[in-house]
Structures are given as structure tokens and as C-alpha cells.
């Protein structure tokens, strides 16, 4: 029996290996047969590197350290386009340490993923698993029935009456102005060089927490470097945990490597801070609409829909992430761009339009939702900022069944591609927004006038598209426009001589990597 056991173990291992190879061979043949029947052809292979995929992981982490991830992806598409002698909008990647994946920047493919074949794709286990410690089962980290429940609960909170109420913003704008006025040299009318990026993040944190919780954390009123309060600790941990999720995401299915002890500490601080407000709402200390003229509070409204404190916390932290970071990042890129000397004439044109419509800083006319939407050149400038610097430059889905992308396969890139069940498909809005075959030879240039005759389609997706389109899109655009108007009323000139070269601080959203240091000239 001992001899038989010795003989049978190697034989069993060989049999298992043969069975494994046979199963995969049969699956491969079936897949190729199905692809041929549907007229599908494979995409070109991208990302040179070792067979294991370790070099790809190193390249991704290097790009993260160098704050260049969005442009690293652009460079790969450009390299493949030069190699193939045609614009490459989709490529394939396969390595043992990574799941077989496709990457696309084709409008038709992205439309298929997000809308036409929406039910054929999910967020995938990598994303939901990576996001779960911080975001729980919130709307940006859930699929299927959980996502449908979240959207049904949250979408009514972004109706026109809530989005168009911009009255709470002014208090926080005034706090920002107080900080900037502290940098004023009264003899010249200029401020010292001040980094606007962290100031915008504090401003939007303050306004977002007031909208969501009913009271602001007032981070702008705290001294520089003061992290002793729970609000300041929350802001620090919120940023740190997001950045670590982005790092963990570079590991693909090995995302757990990035869930460090420090990361879990930051998550705990974030959760404890939000739980304080959740308990206040659940204790009924104030009810929505009980007193005439009382302000709307997001948390109190959704607390009427669920009594689960964990669900309330998860939804709040998801909406806070989107509401705070989207606005702050876009504002950062807006002033990074218009602060450059080559765009001085654009700043003047926009400022003239703002003053004509809304008056001066000291003597303003009413700033309304309708007025902001109708100020055409302002809308063009915001659109162009979001085109060049989309807040989520890369995203992805995982196929829940065999499905088809309409283009990207074959030698000419025009054939459909069969996507295998379980296969990941990444898509880059950043790459798509910079494609010269879609946007012209000046695709890398900030030219607001391009929007005069152009209507947004599937080649322009700053807020995603399809059923998962951002429910807070109008809220974010309104807040961005309001803050821009007040800034342009206050400052008649920008000096961007201290601006660094473009880099991308890519956490879960994309902000200027080295800040936005500008000198500001105060208008009379």
C-alpha cells in the first residue's frame, strides 16, 4: 500500500495537470469558435514586460509615485498607435499575476459598457473588495440589488430644488476670502504665492459637510497644521485612506497588499467621525421640514429611508467623497489652467462676462442657478477643464457573462471583440478626451470656444454615463460655477509664474499633483 501511495501521488498530480490543461483548452476552443461565429477578432496586445506581470506592476507604481498615471496610460496608447500605424483605441493585456484584461478609450466601447450592455458588466470583485473597508456598500462601491437600492434612496435627494439652493455656499466662500486676504500686500494689491488646491479642498469639505450633516466641520477656520480636533483628524485620514485605496488598486487582484495597518487606522477615524452625526440624526434631534424655513439636511432626509446606521454611514462617506473631491479637484485644475500666462486673455474674457452678469465683488447682483447655467462662456470654460482633466481619468468594469464590444479588434481595429466572462475591461476617459482623431489637432489645448458648436456625446464623459451617471452632477457643476464667479469678482489678475509642471495627484479623484500656487491681484 505504501508503494502504491508513493506511485499514485505523482500520477494524481499529473492527471490533475492534464485535466487542467484540457479544461482550459476546451474553453479556449469554445471561445475562439464563438468569437469567429460573431465576427469578433482580438485586440492588439499592449504593455511590454515580463511574463509574470511584475514589470507592469512596477510601472504602475512608478507612475503613481511620479504623479503621472493618466499620462502614462496615454503614452501606452500612443506607443501602440505608432507601432500599428493607426489610432489604437483598445488593447489587451495578459499576465499571470493579473487577470486577463482589456483597456479601451473608444466612445462606442465605453457606451456599450456603461449603457447599451450595462447588465453584462459589474464593478468587479477587485474594486468592491478594495473599496469596501472605507466605502462599505455605498453607491460607488456596490453592484446589483445593493446599488439599485442605494440609487433609489439617494437620487431623490438631488432634485432641482436642492441642487439650485446655493445660499449655504457664501459663508464658506467668505471664509476662503478671509484666508486669501491674510496673504495681501496692501502696497501692491497682490497676494503672496498661495497654493489654492488645499484651500479648495477645505472649502468644499466645509460646504459638503454642512449640506450632508447639517453642520460644517469648518476646516477653513482651523490653524494651519492643527490636527488636534476630530474634524481636522477626519480630514487628514479621509485624504490618506483615499490615496491608499488608489495605491492598492494598482495591485489589481492583489489589492489587499495595500490595506496596511495605517490604512485601517485612517478608516476607523473616518467612520467614528461620521458615526457621530449618524447617531444625532437617528436620535431625532432635528427632523427635516418640521420648522418652516428650516434648511434641508441630506442625512436627516435619508435617515427617513433607513434606520441602519452602517448603511447611513456608508452612503454619507460615498457622497462626501464625490461631493467634496469632484468640486475641489475641478476648481484646482480650472485655476491651474487660467493662471498660466498664455491664458491671461481667457481669464480677462471670462471675468468681463462674469462682471457683466453678476456685478462686482463688493456690489454683486444675485447669483442664481439659472444665471450660472446661462453664462455661456463660464460653462464652456468648465466643460473644457473637465475635458482636459476629468476627475476620474480611469475606471473599469468586469464582464458577468460573455459579451461583445463593438470595435477595437482585428488589424484595422474596427472589428468587434468578444469579452470573456470574468474579464476586466478598463476604460480611460482621460485618454479619450485627448484623442486628436476625436477632438482635433489641438486636443491638448485649453480652448473653451470649441464648445460653441459642439454638443457633448459619448466622447465626453466627465461624470460617467448610463445608469451609473453621477447623480450629483448638477450639484457639483453649480458649486464649481458659483465659486469661480466669486473668485473672478474678487481677483482681476492671476500670476502663475510659480506654477509647477503638470502632474496628477491621483487618489480616487484627479487633482493637480503639486498644487496650484498663484499670486492673486485683488480688484478695487
TrEMBL record:
GO terms for molecular function: heme binding; iron ion binding; oxidoreductase activity, acting on paired donors, with incorporation or reduction of molecular oxygen, reduced flavin or flavoprotein as one donor, and incorporation of one atom of oxygen. One of its GO terms (cellular component) is membrane. SUPFAM superfamilies: Cytochrome P450. It is found in: Membrane. Heme binds at residue 470. It is a single-pass membrane protein. Its cofactor is heme. Keywords: Heme, Iron, Membrane, Metal-binding, Monooxygenase, Oxidoreductase, Transmembrane, Transmembrane helix. It comes from the Eukaryota. Belongs to the cytochrome P450 family. This is Cytochrome P450 monooxygenase CYP52X1.
